[in-house]
Design a protein that fits this description.
Strand order of the largest sheet: 3-4-2-1-7-9-10-8
Radius of gyration: 23 Å
Number of helices: 14
Number of domains: 2
CATH class of the largest domain: Alpha Beta
Strand content: 15-25%
CATH topology of the largest domain: Carbamate kinase
Bound molecules: aspartic acid, magnesium ion
CATH superfamily of the largest domain: Acetylglutamate kinase-like
Largest sheet: 8 strands, mixed
């Protein structure tokens, strides 16, 4: 049994959905659980609905309308029969969305966010499932919330592995042992023990695929992407990228952690624990082999480059220039945790502690205010964090042309450079 994951880009329009059908048609003889995320940029659009609903309770309808028409356009292209039941199904889902955003918010923003934003995956899977059935790829639509059990950390829910494993064993395994060969379900969403919908963090559908694969267990997982596999650099910044045809779980975790956008960082561990290989393949060229992530090391260690833009360097000093000691560090880390900010790199000297974090116009001011209670804080934004895995001197020189290096951190395999791009500053 296999697990497939198709992300938003693969189902962003009718042609995309047809292409998914084509790929699934190539695997007709296999049992496949397919995880599908919200179409195109739907999640971003739903985030705007959540904001409108929560923050000023105005403009909700204006934010919903483009989402409705976007999906209707896709459905109109996919279903020539305008009486197809899928139109009613989607209508009902939108009615649910309107109902969820009617009146005053009753709970926290993060709670409301989950109830609203999760709807994108429901819509996408309903459309894809109906279309596949229409084209002869008989499948069951499954509600991921019947399986993926979580705590109630809204927007970043933690998986309840025991309950999830039970659900999968009791309800999903028998389904595939029976008539079902193909099932379509949502990524990104889960459910609390009180039956409220949760989400597990943006881009979390890869992780959902891994959770299903781990608990089934599946023979392998394939993430279908708009790139040929895991590349050694983002083609956005590099002309001469190389496809890594084979990488170890360890490398994949490190690359994902440092910011390769190809695989969600949480995806690897559940697969590694059961030794389930992960394929990253192109939905544009589905016959190509792509990248396989497994417990096998690639003997060929090609340098990989990861860029994180919009970094802020924050330097923290004690107000009286005394040393930064463990007690201060404890306070500092507590502030980061409270502000919900992930540290990308950190470095300390006797009197200062410096970190680089992703810029965030809401969270950063909260953090600075927290830190300023006890410390002197200076910061510098608009920076880039470059990570090179399997680096050598030549690669460092290559990435630091026209930059000022503000922080440098080296380990045996990885170098991280926080730089100010000087070229950008001189351009108009
Ligand atoms: N639709 C969600 C998002 O865009 C989850 C995912 O795509 O993996 O973040
Ligand atoms: Mg997505």
């Amino acid at each position: 049994m296999k697990v497939f994951k198709f992300g938003g880009a693969s189902v962003k329009d009718a042609a995309g959905v047809r292409n998914v059908a084509k790929i699934l048609g190539m695997y007709k003889d296999e049992n496949i659980l397919t995880v599908v995320s919200a179409m195109g940029k739907t999640t971003n659009m739903l985030e705007k609905v959540a904001e409108a609903f929560y923050h000023n309770n105005a403009g909700v309808a204006e934010q919903i309308e483009p989402i409705r028409s976007y999906h209707l356009t896709i459905m109109n292209e996919l279903f020539s029969n305008k009486n197809h039941p899928v139109f009613d199904t989607i209508n009902n889902v939108f009615a649910e969305l309107e109902w969820a955003t009617d009146g005053e918010p009753t709970k926290s923003y993060d709670f409301e966010y989950d109830q609203i934003v999760s709807i994108g995956e429901v819509i996408a899977t309903r459309i894809v499932s109906a279309y596949l059935n229409e084209t002869g790829l008989k499948n069951s639509w499954l509600d991921a919330r019947d399986y993926i059990s979580t705590d109630d950390t809204w927007r970043n829910a933690a998986i309840n592995w025991e309950a999830t494993e039970n659900n999968v064993q009791q309800k999903l395994v028998p389904l595939f042992a029976g008539k079902t060969k193909l099932a379509i379900t949502q990524g990104f969403i889960g459910v609390t023990s009180e039956n409220y919908t949760t989400t597990i963090g943006r881009e979390g559908s890869d992780f959902t695929a891994a959770i299903f694969a781990h608990t089934l267990p599946a023979t392998d997982v394939t993430i279908w992407k708009d790139v040929p596999g895991v590349l050694n650099a983002d083609p956005k910044w590099f002309d001469d990228t190389v496809l890594l045809d084979k990488i170890s779980y360890r490398d994949a975790i490190e690359l994902a952690w440092f910011g390769t956008s190809v695989i969600h960082p949480k995806t690897i561990q559940p697969l590694q624990n059961k030794n389930i290989p992960l394929y990253v393949k192109s939905f544009i060229e589905p016959d190509k082999t792509g990248t396989v992530v497994s417990n096998e090391e690639n003997p060929l260690q090609i340098p990989s480059f990861i860029y994180r833009m919009n970094q802020v360097l924050i330097s923290i000093m004690s107000k009286d220039f005394s040393f930064i000691v463990e007690k201060n560090l404890m306070e500092i880390f507590k502030s980061f945790s409270e502000a919900g900010i992930k540290i990308n790199i950190m470095q300390n000297t006797a009197i200062s502690f410096s970190v680089s974090v992703d810029d965030d116009k809401y969270k950063i001011p909260v953090l600075i205010a927290l830190l300023q209670k006890d410390f002197k804080v200076v910061y510098n934004s608009g920076l880039e964090l470059i990570t090179v895995r399997n680096y050598n001197q030549q690669t460092i020189e290559r990435v630091t042309i026209n930059t000022e290096v503000l922080l440098e951190l080296k380990s045996r395999k990885t170098v991280q450079l926080l730089v100010k791009n000087l070229e950008q500053l001189t351009s108009p």
